Amino acid sequence: MKNYSDSTVSSLLIGIAGGSAGGKTTFAKELLRAAGNKVAVLELDRFYHSLGNREDYQQVNFDEPAALDFDLLQTVLEELRAHGRASIPIYDFATHTRIGHETLEAAPLIIVEGILILWNRNVRDLLDFKLYVEAPSELRFQRRMMRDMKERGRDAASIQQQWNETVRPMHDKYVEPSRQHADQLIDGTDNLKDTANELLDSWLKKS
């Protein structure tokens, strides 16, 4: 097996973008499940800016590009490609701050996943293959409603308000337009396990 900490070995960088609750995280998990240690996953959510002690964090728009540190993400991707490992932030969503760092070891395939992965040109130019996972808006809202109520203990009214005020407008303004940069569109309502296996076969032959 190749040593991917060796700087002479290059990983294949795969970007997976798409709307909130569209299926991109599920798709990334299917890739990881199918390929095991041949895949490393890097989430865009790790790269939110720290808000420190700001008391108005509830008014921050987490769905616009300004909320994310794309410069740091670019640096991390360059380090992974050049050195086979990189220090990545640990983000605490309860306090909206970075609480430390950990080392990510490269693998033959590095999946970079998040709603705005294809928005930033510098990051986009580092990717070897770009995917956009799409699903109807109403289905995405229903999925998000169930997820946030079950996993984050939120009430339906606050989820609906956030969707209407930031999630949907930012999707229309930033996320959906980034779809044009994708090399391939993935149906987020389809059997993502089968799609993951099909793509893995082709990618691993190139890595």
Short structural summary:
This protein is of the alpha/beta class and 207 residues long.
Write the layout of secondary structure elements.
Elements: E1 12-18, H1 24-35, E2 39-43, H2 70-83, E3 85-92, E4 97-105, E5 109-113, H3 121-126, E6 129-134, H4 137-151, H5 156-175, E7 184-187, H6 192-206
Parallel strand pairs: 1-5, 1-6, 2-5, 6-7
Antiparallel strand pairs: 3-4
Helix pairs in contact: 1-6, 4-5
Task: List the main descriptive attributes of the protein structure presented here.
207 residues; alpha/beta; Rossmann fold; 21% strand
What does this structure look like?
Strand 3 (85-92) and strand 4 (97-105) form a beta hairpin. The chain has helices at 24-35, 70-83, 121-126, 137-151, 156-175, 192-206, and strands at 12-18, 39-43, 85-92, 97-105, 109-113, 129-134, 184-187. The protein contains six helices and seven strands, in the order E-H-E-H-E-E-E-H-E-H-H-E-H. The protein is α/β, with parallel strands linked by helices and 207 residues long. The two termini are 12 Å apart. It is globular.
